[in-house]
Amino acid sequence: MDDDSRAKHWEHRTEIPLFVAALVYLAAYATHVLATDMPAVWHAVCLSVTFGLWLVFAADYVVRWRLSGQGLRFVPTHMLHTVVVLLPLLRPLRIVRLYEAVQRRSGQPRLSLHARVISYAGLSTVLLAFSGSLAVYQAERGAPGATMHTFGDAVWWAASTLTTVGYGDVTPVTPLGRVIATGMMIGGLALLGAVTGSFSSWLMRTFYREGDEKPPGS
Amino acid sequence: MDDDSRAKHWEHRTEIPLFVAALVYLAAYATHVLATDMPAVWHAVCLSVTFGLWLVFAADYVVRWRLSGQGLRFVPTHMLHTVVVLLPLLRPLRIVRLYEAVQRRSGQPRLSLHARVISYAGLSTVLLAFSGSLAVYQAERGAPGATMHTFGDAVWWAASTLTTVGYGDVTPVTPLGRVIATGMMIGGLALLGAVTGSFSSWLMRTFYREGDEKPPGS
Amino acid sequence: MDDDSRAKHWEHRTEIPLFVAALVYLAAYATHVLATDMPAVWHAVCLSVTFGLWLVFAADYVVRWRLSGQGLRFVPTHMLHTVVVLLPLLRPLRIVRLYEAVQRRSGQPRLSLHARVISYAGLSTVLLAFSGSLAVYQAERGAPGATMHTFGDAVWWAASTLTTVGYGDVTPVTPLGRVIATGMMIGGLALLGAVTGSFSSWLMRTFYREGDEKPPGS
Amino acid sequence: MDDDSRAKHWEHRTEIPLFVAALVYLAAYATHVLATDMPAVWHAVCLSVTFGLWLVFAADYVVRWRLSGQGLRFVPTHMLHTVVVLLPLLRPLRIVRLYEAVQRRSGQPRLSLHARVISYAGLSTVLLAFSGSLAVYQAERGAPGATMHTFGDAVWWAASTLTTVGYGDVTPVTPLGRVIATGMMIGGLALLGAVTGSFSSWLMRTFYREGDEKPPGS
After folding, report:
1. Whether ipTM exceeds 0.85
2. B72-77 contacts: CB < 8 A, separation 24 or more?
3. How far apart (Å, rounded) are the C-alpha atoms in residues D131 and A112?
4. Disulfide: which of A89, B25, C64, C106 matches B53 by Cβ 3.0-4.6 Å?
């Protein structure tokens, strides 16, 4: 069995367990941040789960790296993979792989490219908003002069930030909160551009399709 | 008469009445929200009209579904239709259908695709701004700490939100108001992208047309 | 002499005088708004000039309409012309015509389409910012609760609005100011989209040209 | 040796020294602005270095102009060069030239156009944010009513401005600060459009590449 097929085999076997692990990671982190009146022992459990799963993700990354036989060239060619090891809250972004794996097995016709881009980018934006709200909320909670008092405030702030509206009624005031916020602004702009661009053209196509006409651009 | 032609027949017959019903719905809702010193009985009338018309819209949706003979596949292929049943304030967006129906009968030459996209997206943005202002104003009015005191404030807020300027001098503070606002940000970004993109290219074409030249990109 | 050539003749003869008139109009209006400690008689002069020139613009519009022989179809096909009659502050936007008229006579090679779009859209944005600042400043000045105290504030507000940044440290509070502001947001978004899009692609081309390479997309 | 080859020779010899000078310029300016408790003599050194290097940049510009033999046409065809002489803080933008010079010598395969545009535009945005923060911070520091108290505030303000989010919790209040801010809004919009557009399409390609599929648009 050569390197390439071993890498494929590893990927094939770990895809679904790792995706479940990513959801557990997100849930454990969210529980830690949001369930403030939970007994201390449960907080310890949540933190252990998040740390343990991060070790699993790192191990998976190392195994793939070794199996790829690419040396340092692995990092630039697997950029997304590298990013989600460093920022595991974004790991569920890899759902696109799971979706494709499932569809390949079932042999069903795939969604159109259009629909895939919209659902994927939309899902990513929601995930970015949720993860970012959690992380910024944890950084801001209880800071002196904070304007972000509840998790609802954090979600509202994330929505106004990712759409670049930026009311400024709720803003992070701590250095860590602002660093995460800057990352969200940049990542969000790119994803949102993809979402709105696709949505806008989908809307046009929908109207023309309903009118029994050839959609524009086809 | 087969399913397909019956569906077309139903559509042909209901298009204009349903559009009028959508305008009545919007007017009744606006009256309920804005006419605060109207006798209670008139408020009851407005609410009955909005609820009754919503039942009509839902019934129309069910009939079309049955006539289409598509089963569950009807929902994704008639996404816009599904959205306007859930959010009837946006129903006048279907005006594009009415416009096309009228033009098909009169046999007049259609507007250019360019002009249709601009008028439709512009109209939708205005409608989204008006409906959203109404709904957010109803949610915010009288809330403690609200910055939105009059309907004028709500319209001003909607304009600064849909253009993504987001001054933040007027912002929703209630959970319901913020949920509606988030929907407006997302929907508005997409529509506005279409409006400004088309407007910008229309502007360019206008100038070149006036200069007796071939427009760019043609 | 047929209608068409008479229309062309009229245009040829009035182009430069009308452009000068537009600049005088803008200057008179700016003087009226900004020179607050000018004697009352001069204010009266400025207002007479603006009103008189507006009559001239309206007369020119009527003459062209009659000469065009197009009837009501003149309005949609001369949209920009119609807009600048209603909002004469934007009239200098027609500078593109003057520029073309001058170049046609001198026979010099025209700028590339790229450079023309950038200069025109950039100029229009500056003009929109200046005219809008003037109009909003006049509406806001002295209003109770106004945050726009000097003309500098108004220009700063216009810059943050036209770029959709929207800090909200300075915002219009009067109904008239907000109506003008909404118009600026919409018009500005479209123009700015054209400016930044062209600028961004020009920047890329510049770098590649300096590197003695074929620019991308050519 | 004709003009053209002498111009190339000059460029070849000065590229790396000038780039190092640009970095020294930026470092000296940053030290002057940020190291507030440095002895006065060091401030004088920093200022002398910035002024001296500016003279060097101006001299280089004049030499190239003379060698080009283009007369006044040199200015529009070397726009970027002209801009960085006037605003030397932006000079490191010319790093693209250095990068190309190095690569030409080493003969390595160049990055794809896609990757070059992203890295260059991303780098420029970071540089614009850093230089702008420095300049605005210098103008705002200690101004009455300033909301920008630390350099961290200035960087946070720059991030929210360049992404057009514009919270407005930190804003310049001095005329000079606002002029620089307006320049940043305009330049940043264009660069950011390039960054996010490229990033968004890169993200899509990455996902599809990882799925062993042909990327969209190729």
Report:
1. no
2. B77/A209
3. 45
4. B25
Supply the pLDDT for residue A12.
78
Q: Are C127 and C92 in contact (CB under 8 A)?
A: yes
Rounded to whole angstroms, the Cα distance separating B47 from C153 reads: 46
Tokens of C111: 């700028």
First and final CA of chain C: distance in angstroms? 45
Q: Which of A144-158, B88-102, D173-187 has the lowest mean pLDDT?
A: B88-102
Which of A117, A207, A212 has the highest number of chain B CBs within 10 A, making it the mutation to test binding with B?
A: A207
**What contacts C135, CB < 8 A, 6 or more positions away?**
C89, C180
Query: What six digits make up the tokens of A3?
Result: 């390197």
Separation of alpha carbons C211 and D102, rounded Å: 12
Q: Give domain limits for chain C.
A: 1-94, 111-218
Of B161 and D6, more confident: B161
CA closest to D204 among chain A residues: A117
Percentage of the residues of chain A whose pLDDT score is greater than 70 = 75
Q: Do D203 and A186 touch (CB under 8 A)?
A: no
Amino acid at C39: P
- Counting as contact any 3 or more CB pairs under 8 A, the partners of C are A, B, D
Structure tokens at C32: 């009226």
Q: Are A194 and D200 in contact (CB under 8 A)?
A: yes
Mean of all residue pLDDT scores within chain D: 80
Structural contact between residues C64 and C81, judged by C-beta atoms closer than 8 angstroms: yes
> 3-state DSSP call for residue D217?
coil
CB pair distance less than 8 Å for B160 and C185: yes
Please give the angle made by the CA atoms of C105, C111 and C115, to the nearest 5 degrees. Answer: 140
| Predicted local confidence at residue B8, as pLDDT | 81
Helix residue ranges per DSSP H, B110-216: 113-140, 151-162, 175-210
The answer to whether residues C174 and C143 touch, using CB atoms and an 8 Å cutoff, is yes
Which positions 141-170 of D are in contact with C (Cβ < 8 Å)?
Answer: 161, 164-168
**Distance (Å, rounded) from C-alpha B178 to C-alpha D91?**
44
Going from the C-alpha of A107 to that of each of A5, A101, B56, the distances in angstroms are: 22, 10, 41
Distance CA D86, CA D61 (A): 11
Q: What are phi and psi of C141, to 5 degrees?
A: -50, 120
Q: Which of B125, B115, B70 is nearest to B93 (CA)?
A: B125
Mutation target vs A (from D150, D202, D207; most A CBs, 10 A cutoff): D207
D chain contacts of residue B168, beta-carbon cutoff 8 Å? 167-168
User: For position C42, what pLDDT does the model report?
Assistant: 92
CB under 8 A, 24+ apart: contacts of A169-174: A169/B168, A169/B171, A171/A147, A171/D167, A171/D169, A172/A136, A172/A139, A172/A140, A172/A146, A172/A148, A173/A140, A173/A143, A173/A145, A173/A146, A173/A147, A174/A139, A174/A140, A174/A143, A174/A146
pLDDT at A2: 65
- C198: which residues sit within 8 A by CB, 6+ positions away? C114, C117, C118, C121
| pLDDT band of D210, cuts 50, 70, 90 | very low
Instruction: Judge whether residue B127 has pLDDT over 70.
Output: yes
Given this model, what pLDDT does residue B215 score?
40
CATH number for region A111-218: 1.10.287.70
Q: Which of D14, D202, D184 is nearest to D116 (CA)?
A: D202
CA C34 – CA C29 distance, rounded (Å): 9
Distances (CA, A) of D89 to A37, C9, D25, D123, D187: 51, 52, 8, 14, 14
In this structure, how many other beta carbons lie within 10 angstroms of the beta carbon of residue B53?
20
Closest CA to D204 of C81, A79, A150: A79
**B97 in Cβ contact with A213 (< 8 Å):** no
